[in-house]
Write a structure and sequence with these properties.
Elements: H1 2-23, E1 29-34, E2 54-59, E3 67-69, E4 80-82, E5 91-96, E6 99-102, E7 108-113, E8 121-127, E9 132-139, E10 146-151, E11 157-161, E12 166-170, E13 179-185, E14 198-205, E15 207-210
Antiparallel strand pairs: 1-14, 2-5, 3-4, 4-14, 5-13, 6-15, 7-10, 7-14, 8-9, 8-13, 9-11, 11-12
């Protein structure tokens, strides 16, 4: 009787574990980046990255003018990346030190941004095979900081020239199961405060892939 009871309990535990695994289909946070709360500075650099597991890369003619910005007023002004002084197109990406990420099956990206002028901040991806992609979806102008969530499966991807930071046509086939770098750009130079992009933080939800 005791053996039967133990066996029955073991079966219940196993079934519960399998049920939990089956229903845990949403990927967790692969990384989040909030920039360090240190004085504003140009250019943006690795020392401004708060997450010690991430490597920063900058691209485009305007990369040297990207600013890690902050203001004393208002009191809740965040520490953020600002493109207002960029003299050419620019792009910021983040790469995990050890792992790539699988952005299939319910993957998403969330961020907090504020754009002005006609700026449209878009997601950029570097695949493990070296291919670059940029999203058709974007985060546009806002009078105040706004949190936006992108469902990766909803995005149509275009090919990107990472050196010039320009879109070069529709990507007909995309495999997002092994992504090396994730970042953002608005594909435009800066126009000071009246025409710029700002990013406070970014979160990536996906499955870790050993590099």
């Amino acid at each position: 009787m005791k053996i039967v009871l133990i066996t029955f309990i073991s079966l219940i535990i196993s079934a519960g574990t399998l049920f939990a695994q089956k229903n845990n289909y949403r990927p967790g946070v692969f990384f989040r980046e909030d920039w360090k709360e240190i004085p504003a500075e140009i250019p943006l650099s690795q020392k401004h990255v708060n997450n010690t597991e991430l490597i920063l890369s900058l691209y485009g003619a305007g990369q040297d003018s990207l600013k890690k910005s902050n203001h004393e007023k208002p009191a809740d002004d965040p520490f953020y990346v600002w493109s207002g002084l960029c003299l050419g197109n620019w792009m910021v990406t983040l790469k995990h030190k050890n792992n790539n990420v699988d952005l299939t099956e319910f993957a998403k990206i969330r961020w907090r941004t504020k754009q002005s002028g006609v700026r449209q901040l878009r997601i950029v991806l570097k695949l493990a095979n070296g291919e670059w992609l940029i999203s058709n979806q974007f985060d546009g102008i806002a009078k105040d900081w706004r949190i936006k969530e992108f469902i990766i499966d909803d995005i149509v991807w275009h090919k990107l020239d990472a050196e010039r930071v320009v879109e070069i046509g529709l990507a007909k086939k995309t495999d997002l199961s092994n992504i090396e770098e994730i970042g953002f750009t608005d594909l435009m130079p800066g126009g000071k405060s009246a025409a710029c992009s700002r990013l406070d933080w970014i979160e990536v939800y996906g499955k870790s892939v050993k590099r």
